């Protein structure tokens, strides 16, 4: 039996394009002699559809697409993810399902049992967990079909009280297929490899695994679909960060023609770079925009965002706006202009002194000579946001946010100022990782000016201001933040791990106090196991522990 | 047996104040001869603790509080909600539990089985569902103790496949107790009454029900705890929107000394008014702020917010900033000043012409004489946000957002402009309901100027602009929005219900296109069954159906 794995980039709710793409892959698989073509979890509608699932019309459109796709499977079979209605009155109204369609006919519907409901996942919000297990039989092959999380209950502290494969294995299947929507983070592929390999080993079956690829607002799918033999050895892999379709022959209980290969993950920085490029590109493409705008300060963050945007969208579609104030240094303007020249993107220079003077003047009677403080600092950042948003409103360019994860974490940013934007490119990238990205972007030639990389970071909102005036070195800060945000450790444990007590308490307090700011920031392209946004849900008005 | 129901206002994560409050109520109950005192669901830590639950330190602090509270129960018993660790390796690490503590000792832990995971609820994100049921025995009384949702699986399309009371009833209990954290919406109390009454009737047992009271950022708990007899008849009720403690005697299988009373819900507008007052007050109190600032336009929305804030915080703590532009009408300024005078709150007048002229001037070279459009309109709204935020940064006043649900729905607002604020007071109140609130506020004397109520609404961002230039009448708009947002109907069904086809498509498209804006708005005080925010999770980059 020849089995095609179709790793495609879906668009949530775009049934027309998803269905056309799926039927195209079925045709291609058929042309190349495949007997079965396998698509990802919720391929019909894209993942995650979120509360679209609560609209009955949305479910009808999924069903219509299935009908259309079924009609395209004459002489072939396919496995494809879709929500389906729960026929029972009791329980949630939907299942997260996989259709098995053969020669134009739906032969079986397999439902997902383990519903991830943590971090960015909300599956139990919508779906009833399956409790009824059986294999698919096709061309004399018994297939144990599971959906994503169904294979993930395999560690020492399992999240669920049962495992679907423990049921399915009783029917003595020949092969495992798992269809997934497994989002990218820089360390997730390693876990995924291990979990899938462990499943193959445990159940002593070959495993074909199909992931989604493409970005859906903040969530990026990296593809990289796997093929394992019955010993858990990797036989082959589909492309990362792009669509792919490959056909494998299963006969005599094995995948033919492959010998085990080594699993070689990419360096984190290369993964993050590719994820951000895909994230930007799909955000624009799927929302129908082509042009971006951003504020370019001469600092490292906006330089990296500008370079990523130029790569993702084409330099001609990127407008960089330089907005110097009286506190901007000459080298900042030069560094920004050097970057614009290196990339070949458009730019405008709009000095903000006249604006901030006008604010100071109209506020003078009310502020009664009170000393310069954060109010005046924020007026500068917010005036810049008004300007870039005016460009956005006037010319239709979408504003890219340039805040990084370190400053977003400690609240070192101005709400409605530099925290503005339609999508945050670096909001899940710590400052030290931003430097790595800059070096990576410069791997062949100097795109980001060396000076932007080596100079001490500064917000330039008051004379001679440096980030290090109010923040520890980013090397220390980022490690500390990782302990608190990614690992969710207490201040006690972080101090015990060797960090300075006063610093730990100060930094954690800054993180906690900034929850209200982060609540109002744009969606953040997720590249880490714990990004700000949907995957991290903290109270705003709560008493924090540290 | 005398049973005290303690309906208290908790603060999420504030173990010190919650524990002190709980011990205070135990002392009060003891003094008044109670044998048992009953607290709400997750009373230990407040509801919803969200991802605080993922910090092991947080769970330890819950356990410490339980130890402290147990020590205060000499000679009395208590039932109290708290997260507890799941002793099994399999499944989620926590249960949502109720401790039964008697005379200083934890005698039993009852776990919640039905975990609401819809709208604002995320319980399966954190908790393992209970599958093991038994009653509490105390002073010869067998108590069927359940937690909130455990009693809600009683309708024709049950969300869960089992019901805890169906198990507990097998032990022939004498009494039902349900501890809850059941959030307010203007129609929720009616459902709650019916569901609880139906449980009493179905299981033929008296029911004591304890709810939380108080606001936790966007979620408001209205209290209103119920006491039912074994026929489902209402015997008594605790106060709405404030703390309360009452003692009931259970003997001879019944609650002594009460005869059935009629359940009389308040008018919606009174409920919403009280919920918003409590929402504002607790937002400030629990986050340690006292003073508010808001932009006052002379229109109805900001007038209502100003009046609510003055009631919640004291007029002396409210600063209204009038920011007229060249498009502001004289009557707007007069209406705003009349309101300030009626309330006795502080005000400042800061004309924005100098600011907007400065923006126009610095943008002139780039905008090259392109016609006035939404860019210039938004510059006005955003300049005002810069000004009110400057007041906030200079004087420590918290910015109240004044957008209403109708304009938030259709995107009739400026991101980083009038959509700014720390908390949105009216973001879940449709414009037609804002008028009702204004009338309610004026029920005894004219506080909101009559002119603000009767004049046609206008954003005043261009000459002679009216909301009705680009939006249908709010009477029609709000009804249409309700069909789409609250009822999640498709355009087809809304048209079938009698709405104009072209209008339905235009309005739904406006709602869908504004998702990216709403993603970045402040938390919204939730008063309806479907508020924007945590309870409504739509894709940003998705292809919408209409």
Question: Would you give an account of this structure?
Answer:
Two copies of one chain form a homodimer. The first copy, chain A, has 546 residues and is α/β, with parallel strands linked by helices. The first copy, chain A, contains 17 helices and 20 strands. In chain A, the strands form four sheets. A seven-stranded mixed sheet of chain A has the order 5-4-3-2-1-14-15, covered by helices on one side. In chain A, strands 6-7-8-9-12-13 form a six-stranded mixed sheet. In chain A, strands 18-17-16-19-20 form a five-stranded parallel sheet, sandwiched between helices. In chain A, α5 crosses α11 and α6 crosses α11. The model of chain A has no long low-confidence stretch (mean pLDDT 96). Chains A and B meet through α2, α5, α8 and α9 of A and α2, α5, α8 and α9 of B.
Keyword list:
homodimer, 546 residues, alpha/beta, 7-stranded mixed β-sheet, 6-stranded mixed β-sheet, 20 strands, elongated
What is the strand and helix layout of this fold?
Two copies of one chain form a homodimer.
Chain A: E1 2-7, H1 15-31, E2 36-38, H2 56-71, E3 77-85, E4 94-102, E5 105-111, E6 136-138, E7 141-147, H3 164-168, E8 175-179, H4 188-203, E9 207-210, E10 213-216, E11 219-222, E12 226-228, E13 234-237, E14 244-251, E15 254-255, H5 268-287, E16 292-295, H6 300-313, E17 318-322, H7 330-343, E18 346-349, H8 353-367, H9 374-395, E19 398-401, H10 405-410, E20 423-424, H11 431-441, H12 450-454, H13 467-470, H14 474-486, H15 491-496, H16 501-513, H17 515-519
Parallel strand pairs in A: 1-2, 2-3, 7-8, 8-9, 16-17, 16-19, 17-18, 19-20
Antiparallel strand pairs in A: 1-14, 3-4, 4-5, 6-7, 9-12, 10-11, 12-13, 14-15
